[in-house]
C-alpha cells in the first residue's frame, strides 16, 4: 500500500483550514482533533460500502455503526447494500474496519480516545473503548466530501482525545417543559460534537418534572401534568448511554422549590399553601432546614432517585436562596442562634452537609452550584461555577473539583465567539498544574424562561458546537474566523440529528408573515439580534410560563451570519486589506435599504410585526447611511459636518431596542461613520 | 344589539369565496360548514380576551379551551391575560362564552354539531357535546383575521355538523415505524380539519409495533425494538380522546403477518423459521387457520388488546392473502376438502368467522378490508373498501356498513383534486337512500413503504385536509379551484400543530444542496412531482426498510402549487378569458428556463442531485419552448412545421421519468404546442 504522508502535520495552533493535495475543500472538523495528518488520495464511497468490527462489539457500538450507515445513505442517497452491522471479524476486508478493545464505562475520566486512518483501500477506526469509536464515527461523517464524481473520504490520519472529561449541556425542563423527543434530538446533536454529559434540571419553582413513586404529589400537583414517567426517563438514559452520554439529574434545593411545596407544604419554611409558580425570578419558598422530617423526606426521595439515575453524581442545585422565609421564621432564627449559625449561608451549609450524608448513603457524589461552596465540606463534592471564574479559581485552589458554566449561558443570546473564547483554564490561569487538573470541564446551560420546544434548539445550536470545541480541543485553538467558518457547516449538519434550529425559524417566519412572503422577515433577521443578558426582562414585558414565544425576537438569533459577515468585511475594508470588500459591502446594504417597504406591507395583514416596523425603518436608514459613507470614503461623494452630525443622530436612534431586538450591524456602521469623520 | 343580517346566506352549492361587508378577506374555512351567514362588523381581539364556560365543562373541553388560548397568543403575539380556562359560569360576560350540555361519547354517530355566533360584543359557541365545542373552536381559529389595526373575528353565524360520522386517517406504523410524536402532531392536524378516527395499522410483515404482555415475543422479536409500550399507547389514546378522535387498531391477519411468526413460527402455515421482512409486496407467511392453537392464541391476544383499546371496533385487516402456504400445506388441503371449502377465499372466511366469535366474546365489532366480505357474515361487521367503489356498493347493497379508502391512498402521490372529488356516495350513486346510510365515511391511508418520520407529514398534508372536507361537507361542495385556494391557507396553518410537511422539505433541500443555495432546488420542486401510483417501485429501484428516503423524489410533492397555478393559467390564457395571464405565464417560464444552470453547479459538490440533472435540463428546454409558443401565439414570432416537430420531440423526451420524478407542467405545455399547431 503506497502511502504518501504530507509534511502538513496539523497542530492545534494553526487554523484548521488545511487543504490536502487531493481535496477540494478545507476540513470541517468541529471540534478540532488533537492531531490531524492529511495524505494524498481518497476513499471513494459506493453502494458496496461495508462495516466490520474486530474485537469488542457490544450493542452500543453496533447501534452506532447501524446509525452511521443510515446517516451515510441519508446524506448521499446511496442504496448502501449493508443494512445492519451484524457480522464481526469478517474474512473479507470491510470498507471500514472498527477495532475496539472493550466497553467504555459511562463515568468521569473514561478513555474516549480514537484513531482514524483513511487510505484509498479502506478505513480503519480503532479505539480502546466503544466511546472512542462513537467519536471516531462522528469525525468520519464530518470528513465526508463530494464532487461531481461522487462521495468520498479524504485520506487522513486523525489521533484524538478530549482536553476535559466533563463536556455537558444543561436543559432546564421546568420553566418550560421539553418533551422527550426534544431532549433526544439534542442528545444526537451533542453526540455529533462529542459532548458527553446531559444535565437535566428537573425541579424548579415552575415545575417538578419527574414521576416520584415515594412522594407522588410532587409530580401530580407540581407539574401541570407535564413530567417524565420513570419508564420514559429510563428510556432516555438508555438513549443517552447509547450515544456515550451520561445523564446527571439536578434537584434544586433548598430554594427554587415552589413546585415541591405545592404537594408537601409542611416541608416549607413558611406555612403555605403553595401553587405552581408562573412568573420568573428568585422566589421565597424554601425548604425548612431545621425539621427532621425534611431530611427523612430527602432520604427517601434520594433513595428512589439514586436507583433511577445510574450516574455517580447527583446535582443538588443550591443557588439563589434569598433567605426571606428563613429570616421570617422565629423557630429557624432560634435554631440558628442555638447552633451558632451566624448567617443564612451557614444555615445552607448545615443543610448541605445533611444532604451530603444522605447522598453518600445512597452511593452518590454531590455536585452543586457555587453557593454550596463551603471550605469545610469534603473535597469529594463538585462545585459548578455559574457566578464567575473567580469562584471557580477559589474552589479549585481549595482542592474542590470544579466545572464551569459561567460564560456558557446560552439562554442569554450572547455571540458565539464570546462563549468560544471562554476557557475554563485560560493560558493565564493563576492555577497550578495540580489545581488545573481539578477543572473537569464545563456545561452550556439552557435555562428555559423564554424558550419553548419550538425555539429551544435555536438557542442551543449552533453556538453549543463552539462550546463543545472549547471543551474538547486544545486551549490554543482560538481562531474565531476559522471557528465561524466551520460552525456554518456544522450548523447545517446538525439538522441530520433532527434538530429544528433552522427549520423552526422558517416556520415561525411563515406564521409571522401571515400568508405573505416571509423573505423580507428573513432579510430583517439577518441584521438584528435579541437583546442579550437579562435585558428581555427589563424593557416592559413581563414574561410568564404562558406568554407567547412566537414573535420576531423569538425567531431571531445571536450573531446572525449576514450581520457577522458584514461587520467583518467592514473591518477588512477599513483596514485596507481587502479591495474587493467594497462590492461585498454594498450588496447587503442595498438589500437592507430596500427591505423596509416589504416589511411595511406585511404589517398590513400581520399586526404582530408592528413592533419591529420602526426597527426595520431604521435598518433601512442606516443601510442608506452606510452606502453614503462608502461613497464618501471612496471619494464619490463629499460629507460636511452636518452629514456627520445627522449620521450620529441616526445611529443613536437606531440603537434603541424595539420588540426586544436591536440592530446587529451598528458597530460596523459606527466605524464607517467614524472613518468619514476622521477623513 | 344592532345586528344587520346580510342576505348572503351561504349555501354549499356556491363556492365559499364570500366577502362580508366588513371583511378584507374571503373566508378560509375548511371543511366548509353546513351553513354560514356573514354579518357586518367584527369582534376585535385584545389582551383582555377571556373564555367562559356554561353548562358542562369537563377536562377535554377545558384542555381544548386552554390550547385555544395558547394558539391565539401564539399566532398574534398578544400576551393574553387569561392563562387557563378555570372559571365557569362567570358573572362578567366573557369574550367567548362556551355553552355545552354534556360530554360526547367517543363512538360512531355521536353528536358533533355546534353553533358559532360572532358579534361585535362577544362570541358564543354552543354545542350539545364537547366534541361539537372542539370543532367550533377550530372553526373560530380559522376565522381569525387581521389588518394593520389588529386581530379580529368577523361577525358571522355558523351552524355545522358532519355529513359522515367516520372520518379517519390510517397510519401504517409498520413498514416504517412512526414515533409517538409523529402520530401526536398528526392528531392535532386531524383535529384542525375535524377528523375523528385514527386507524393504527399495528402489524405487518415488516414489524409488530405494540407491546404484548401475553405473547411478548411479538414485540421483542418482531419489531427491531421499534414499538409502542402499552403505557405509551394509553397516553396516545388519551391524547386522541382529548381531541375528539377515536383510535381503531388494526392487526392484519391471516396474511401480512411475517413479524408475528418470527416469535411464534408454530402458528404459520409453513414451518419457518421467519425473520422480520425488509422488502415490500405481498409475502407468503400466513397464519395456519386449521390449528386449534391459532384460535387459542388469538383468543388470548385479542383479550389483551380489547382491554387496551377502548374503541368498539377492532380491525383485522384480512387483505392480500396469496394462499401459497395454504396451497403447499397438505394438511390444510385435506382440511379444506373435508370441510367443503372450495377455495382459499372460503378458507379465509372460515378463519374470519372464528376470529369474529373471538372479537364478539371480547366485546368488539369486527372491521376488515374488502377481502373479508362474505355474504354469510353477520351485518354487524364493517367492510373497509380499498379495491374499488364497486366493492363498496356491493357490500352496502348486501346490508353491510362500509367505509371507503379506495381513492384516498395518499401514499400514491395523486393530486389533491383526485381525492377531493372522490365521494363515498356520489350524486349518481346506485345506492338507495336506506343503503346510503350504511356508508359511514372514509379514511385516508398513509401506507409507509417509502416514507419515514421525516417525510410522512408531507404525504399526509395538506391533501388530507381536502379529504376531510369531502367527508364533512355536503356532497355539493365540489369547486376545485376554490378548494385549492383554501387549501393553500390551511397548508400553512397546519404548521401550528407542529406538522413538518413544509419545514422538513426545506431541511431536505438544504441537505441536498450540500451547503450551496437550496433555492434552485425549490424552484425545480415547483415544477416536478413524484411518480404516482406504484410506479416508484417499477423503474429499477428496489426499496427496502433501510433504503434512503432523502432524495429529491422524497422532497417532492403531488400537484405542487407553482405547476398547478401555471397549468390553470394556461387554460385561462388559451380560453381567452384572461388577457393578463400572459405576464403571469412568462414569469415562471423564465424562472424555470434559467434554473438549470444553478442546479448544474450544485451537482458539482452534491452528486446526489445527478439523477435530476437532465430533468432540470429538460425543464429549462420546455420552459424556453413555452416562451416561444407564447410569442408565436401573440404574433411576435412565427412557427413552421419544423418548430412543431421539434417541439413534439422535446415534449416526448421531457416526459420521461428521472429519479422517479416527472415534470408536472407538461400537460399545459402540450396545450400551448397544440395551440400553435392548430393556428
Write structural notes for this entry.
2 copies of one chain form a homodimer. Chain A is an alpha/beta fold. Chain A has 3 domains: 5-160, 2-Layer Sandwich (Chitobiase, domain 2), CATH 3.30.379.10; 166-497, Alpha-Beta Barrel (TIM Barrel); 503-677, no CATH class. Chain A is 40% helix and 16% strand. The first copy, chain A, is built from 24 helices and 20 strands. Chain A is globular, with a radius of gyration of 27 Å. At the A-B interface, helix 1 and helix 17 of A face helix 1 and helix 17 of B.
Count of strand segments of chain A: 20
CATH class wording of the largest domain in chain A: Alpha Beta
Number of helices of chain A: 24
Oligomer: homodimer
CATH architecture of the largest domain in chain A: Alpha-Beta Barrel
Briefly summarize what is shown:
The structure is a homodimer of 679-residue chains. Chain A has 679 residues and is of the alpha/beta class. Chain A is 40% helix and 16% strand.
List the helices and strands and how they pair.
2 copies of one chain form a homodimer.
Chain A: E1 5-10, E2 35-44, E3 51-55, H1 59-76, E4 96-102, E5 114-119, E6 122-129, H2 130-143, E7 145-147, E8 150-160, E9 166-172, H3 180-192, E10 197-201, E11 203-204, E12 207-208, H4 217-222, H5 230-242, E13 246-250, H6 258-263, H7 292-308, E14 313-315, H8 324-328, H9 330-338, H10 344-361, E15 365-369, E16 382-385, H11 389-397, E17 402-404, H12 416-420, H13 433-436, E18 439-446, H14 456-460, H15 463-472, H16 480-493, H17 503-512, H18 519-525, E19 528-530, H19 552-555, H20 561-574, H21 581-603, H22 613-633, H23 641-654, E20 661-663, H24 666-677
Amino acid at each position: 500500500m503506497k502511502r504518501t504522508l504530507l509534511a502538513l502535520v496539523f497542530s492545534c495552533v494553526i487554523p484548521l483550514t488545511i487543504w490536502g493535495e487531493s481535496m477540494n475543500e478545507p476540513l470541517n472538523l468541529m471540534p478540532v482533533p488533537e492531531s490531524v495528518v492529511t495524505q494524498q488520495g481518497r476513499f471513494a464511497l459506493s453502494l458496496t460500502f461495508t462495516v466490520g468490527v474486530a474485537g469488542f462489539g457490544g450493542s452500543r457500538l453496533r447501534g452506532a455503526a447501524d446509525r452511521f450507515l443510515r446517516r451515510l445513505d441519508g446524506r448521499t442517497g446511496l442504496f448502501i447494500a449493508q443494512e445492519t452491522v451484524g457480522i464481526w471479524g469478517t474474512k473479507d476486508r470491510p470498507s471500514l474496519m472498527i477495532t475496539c478493545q472493550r466497553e467504555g464505562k459511562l463515568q468521569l475520566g473514561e478513555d474516549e480516545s480514537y484513531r482514524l486512518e483513511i487510505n484509498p483501500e479502506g478505513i480503519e477506526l480503532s479505539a480502546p473503548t466503544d466511546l472512542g469509536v462513537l467519536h471516531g464515527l462522528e469525525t468520519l461523517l464530518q470528513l465526508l466530501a463530494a464532487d461531481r464524481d461522487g462521495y468520498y473520504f479524504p485520506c487522513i490520519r486523525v489521533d484524538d482525545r478530549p482536553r476535559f472529561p466533563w463536556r455537558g449541556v444543561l436543559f432546564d425542563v421546568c420553566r418550560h417543559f421539553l418533551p422527550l423527543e426534544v431532549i433526544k434530538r439534542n442528545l444526537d446533536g451533542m453526540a455529533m460534537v462529542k459532548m458527553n454529559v446531559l444535565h437535566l434540571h428537573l425541579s424548579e419553582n415552575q415545575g417538578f418534572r419527574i414521576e416520584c413513586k415515594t412522594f407522588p404529589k410532587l409530580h401530580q400537583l407540581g407539574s401541570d401534568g407535564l413530567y417524565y414517567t420513570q419508564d420514559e426517563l429510563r428510556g432516555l438514559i438508555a438513549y443517552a448511554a447509547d450515544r456515550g452520554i451520561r445523564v446527571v439529574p439536578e434537584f434544586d434545593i433548598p430554594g427554587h422549590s415552589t413546585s415541591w411545596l405545592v404537594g408537601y407544604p409542611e416541608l416549607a419554611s413558611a406555612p403555605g399553601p403553595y401553587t405552581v409558580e408562573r412568573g420568573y425570578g428568585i422566589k421565597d419558598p424554601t425548604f425548612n432546614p431545621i425539621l427532621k422530617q425534611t431530611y427523612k423526606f430527602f432520604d427517601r426521595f434520594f433513595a428512589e432517585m439514586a436507583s433511577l439515575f445510574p450516574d455517580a453524581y447527583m446535582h443538588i442545585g443550591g443557588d439563589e436562596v434569598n433567605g426571606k422565609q428563613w429570616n421570617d421564621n422565629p423557630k429557624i432564627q432560634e435554631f440558628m442562634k442555638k447552633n451558632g449559625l451566624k448567617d443564612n449561608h451557614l444555615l445552607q451549609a448545615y443543610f448541605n452537609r445533611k444532604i451530603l450524608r444522605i447522598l453518600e448513603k445512597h452511593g452518590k457524589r454531590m455536585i452543586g452550584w457555587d453557593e454550596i461552596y463551603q471550605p469545610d465540606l469534603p473535597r469529594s463534592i463538585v462545585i459548578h461555577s455559574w457566578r464567575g471564574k473567580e469562584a471557580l479559581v477559589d474552589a479549585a485552589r481549595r482542592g474542590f473539583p470544579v466545572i464551569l458554566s459561567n460564560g456558557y449561558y446560552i439562554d442569554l443570546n450572547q455571540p458565539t465567539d464570546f462563549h468560544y473564547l471562554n476557557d475554563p483554564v485560560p493560558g493565564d490561569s493563576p492555577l497550578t498544574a495540580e489545581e488545573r487538573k481539578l477543572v473537569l470541564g464545563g456545561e452550556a446551560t439552557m435555562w428555559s424562561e423564554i424558550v419553548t420546544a419550538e425555539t429551544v434548539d435555536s438557542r442551543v445550536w449552533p453556538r453549543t458546537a463552539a462550546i463543545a470545541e472549547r471543551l474538547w480541543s486544545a486551549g490554543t485553538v482560538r481562531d474565531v474566523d476559522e471557528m465561524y467558518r466551520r460552525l456554518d457547516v456544522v450548523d447545517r449538519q446538525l439538522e441530520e440529528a433532527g434538530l429544528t434550529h433552522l427549520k423552526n425559524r422558517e416556520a415561525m417566519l411563515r406564521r409571522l408573515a401571515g400568508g405573505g412572503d416571509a423573505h423580507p422577515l428573513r432579510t430583517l433577521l439577518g441584521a438584528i439580534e435579541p437583546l442579550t443578558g437579562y435585558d428581555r426582562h427589563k424593557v416592559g414585558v413581563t414574561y410568564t410560563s404562558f406568554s407567547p414565544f412566537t414573535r420576531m425576537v423569538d425567531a431571531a438569533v445571536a450573531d446572525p451570519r449576514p450581520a457577522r459577515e458584514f461587520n467583518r468585511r467592514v473591518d477588512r475594508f477599513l483596514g485596507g486589506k481587502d479591495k474587493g470588500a467594497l462590492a461585498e459591502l454594498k450588496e447587503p446594504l442595498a438589500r437592507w435599504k430596500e427591505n423596509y417597504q416589504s416589511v411595511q406591507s406585511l404589517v398590513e395583514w400581520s399586526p404582530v410585526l408592528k413592533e419591529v416596523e420602526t426597527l426595520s425603518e431604521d435598518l433601512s436608514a442606516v443601510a442608506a447611511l452606510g452606502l453614503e459613507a462608502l461613497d464618501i470614503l471612496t471619494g464619490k461623494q463629499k460629507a460636511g459636518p452636518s452629514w456627520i452630525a445627522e449620521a450620529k443622530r441616526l445611529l443613536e436612534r437606531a440603537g434603541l431596542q424595539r420588540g426586544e431586538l436591536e440592530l446587529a450591524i451598528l458597530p460596523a456602521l459606527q466605524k464607517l461613520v467614524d472613518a468619514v469623520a476622521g477623513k
